[in-house]
Amino acid sequence: MDALVTRAARALREGDPLGALQRVALREDAPALALRGVAMAQLGEFAKATQLLRRAARAYGSGDDLARARCGVAEAEVALASRDFEGVDLLLVEALRTFEHHGDSENARYTRLLQARHALVLGRVEAAEQVLAGLDSRGVSSMQSSLARLLSFEVALRRGKIHAARTALEHARVAARQARIPALGAEVEQAARVLSIPAARVVVRGEARPVMLDEVESLLGSEHLVVDACRRVFRSGSRVVSLSTRPVLFALLRVLAEAWPGDASRDELVWHVFGARRVNASHRARLRVELGRLRTQSRDLADIQATPRGFVLVPRRPVEVRVLTPPVEGAGGAVVALLADGEHWSTSALAHALGASQRTVQRALAALEEAGQVRVLGRGRARRWVAPPVSGFTTTLLLPTSTFPG
Hints:
By secondary structure, the chain is of the alpha+beta class. Helix content is 57%, strand content 11%. The strands form three sheets. The protein has a six-stranded mixed beta sheet with strand order 2-1-9-3-4-5. Strands 6-8-7 form a three-stranded antiparallel beta sheet. Strands 10-11 form a two-stranded antiparallel ribbon. A hairpin with a 6-residue loop joins strand 10 and strand 11. Helix 1 packs antiparallel against helix 2 and helix 1 packs parallel to helix 3.
């Protein structure tokens, strides 16, 4: 590399994209095109960045596999930042194969970090955890160490392991200081704010109060009967009953749990679960059937007994019933949680991350837009959705995840 390219690369490593552009903005050779692409990505010009990186890869030609692979990784990173997931897996797999073939351990490690980030954005927590567990930490740079710890922090949050998350965050903070990259330090501090604001509400004996993630972890590890509306599970200690695929049963359970230690009337149950304001014989019959199914599902943790007015939840052991509710209720909660990261999401990217159909996501977005919780930018294929952060709460517990053990 010549002196200008070297200084531009150093400016990018230090988080100074404008300084890098000042040195190579008018150059059309392959290294300069690649550096310009990275600089534009740091400035948020993702479409232009992708175009420049592809031009750089073509300019390098087939004779420089390593340089082309680095362009591919940069393009994948831009795609992740712009929430355009199509082809990201293939770019990263091909780049990783090239780096390993040439013994480029540093770039191979960074590619794996991007694979872990991609998995986390899509809610594949186990896949991200496996990638991080397989990383070789020998000779790792401070920058990559900080990034790895930040990813470990997010994995621990998704798992509900807040003590492990705090430990990972502190390691990330130390590594970021050593790296002396201001943008990286800012990312660590932004992640730290998640731990200092409420993450959910807990309802006990009819009274709700906000709770931090530490309190959520303690609650999920307690022997209390916890009705977790964030993951639609019913748990006490290590015993967990999932109702994630039984929304009617979970809705019944939640009404009973919020009424505990009192009972919930039949009319109240029918109204909250079936949406009927006037109860008829058909509703009562359906209610009996669904309550019978709920008794079967929850028999190890609690019983459901009839009262003159309705039904009451009775724990098998002398513990309290507590309901954990998300900061954003309704079908659009997971959509809001994804949009709260401040990035611009397409409808297809949201559907991909949530494992839902685009039609389902479109309906949720329409309702959220009408309520003023999200807004749309652009038209046609450039149409993107954004939302402000949820004020006063973190939406961590609403993010998609494959599993959420205690």
